[in-house]
Specification:
The chain is of the alpha+beta class and about 260 residues long. The chain contains 3 helices and 7 strands.
């Protein structure tokens, strides 16, 4: 009688190999996911930090524009290209820049004319933002829409930055600001007040010609020009063409920003 002999099957190890490969793939997938989350978290943190720096620089920029609006006289010392800290900047206000200089004030690391802003955006910011104001001189057009142009305004260039710190974003903003000259502003205000004092709210028919409560511009032929555009030459010309231009300047030439940019380094 023949006896059947069963030979044992040898193990090839394919299941173990496949399990190890799958484990490796899962591990790589997990490591990649963790790295992606880390990168996204860093991107969000950098975006938040830059937004905070931008707001800080904008705050300093507006504080510098407020200084420009006050029309404070700049230091008499001229800018020296070789020595920027020669007294040409005092308390954040600087004398006019020199176009011939190779580098601007904000590009020179040795420049110490920055002024710390008094307003802080957030305790998370690196520190107080800084700014300085450069006087560009008079002769700027107050109202571009006015014809002929009235060039009685001062121009200022304000440069502001967030506080530099290691590992923190730094944003530099710059604007051109137009301010009405103090002497002209005072003259316009006095002229405008004289016009208001001379106006007659009750109006009459006695040749006065002043505008009544109904806003009637039809004063008689003997009226002056205090509110009556049809008055004759016997009026006192308080509302002639020159006065009309002065009022327009006084109303439209308020201090204001005409342009701004971000300086990218």
């Amino acid at each position: 009688m023949n006896t059947l002999r069963h030979r044992p099957h040898t193990q090839s190890g394919m299941v173990l190999l496949m399990a190890l490969v799958m484990l490796l793939l899962v591990t790589l997938l997990g490591v990649t996911s963790v790295r992606m989350l880390t990168v996204e978290e860093r991107m969000a943190a950098n975006s938040f930090d830059r937004n905070l720096a931008f707001q800080a620089a904008e705050t300093a920029l507006r504080e510098g524009e407020a200084l420009a609006a006050s029309n404070t006289a700049p230091p008499p010392t001229a800018m020296d290209c070789g020595q920027l800290n020669n007294g040409a900047c005092v308390n954040g206000l600087c004398s006019p820049p020199v176009p011939a200089c190779n580098s601007a004030r904000w590009d020179d690391a040795s420049f110490n004319g920055w002024r710390n802003a008094t307003t802080l955006v957030s305790p998370l910011a690196a520190g107080a933002p800084q700014f300085f104001v450069e006087h560009l001189g008079p002769g700027f057009v107050c109202d571009p829409q006015e014809q002929p142009p009235n060039t009685v305004c001062n121009g200022y260039r304000i440069t502001a930055r967030s506080q530099p710190a290691d590992g923190r974003a730094v944003v530099i903003l710059q604007s051109i600001y137009i301010a009405l000259m103090l002497t002209m502003a005072r003259d316009h205000t006095l002229f405008y007040e004289a016009y208001n004092d001379a106006s007659d709210d009750n109006g009459d028919d006695n040749g006065d010609g002043r505008r009544d409560d109904n806003g009637d511009d039809n004063g008689d032929d003997n009226g002056d020009d205090n509110g009556d555009d049809n008055g004759d030459d016997n009026g006192d010309d308080r509302r002639d063409d020159n006065f009309t231009n002065d009022v327009r300047v006084q109303r439209s030439a308020v201090p204001g920003r005409i342009s701004w940019r971000e300086i990218i380094r």
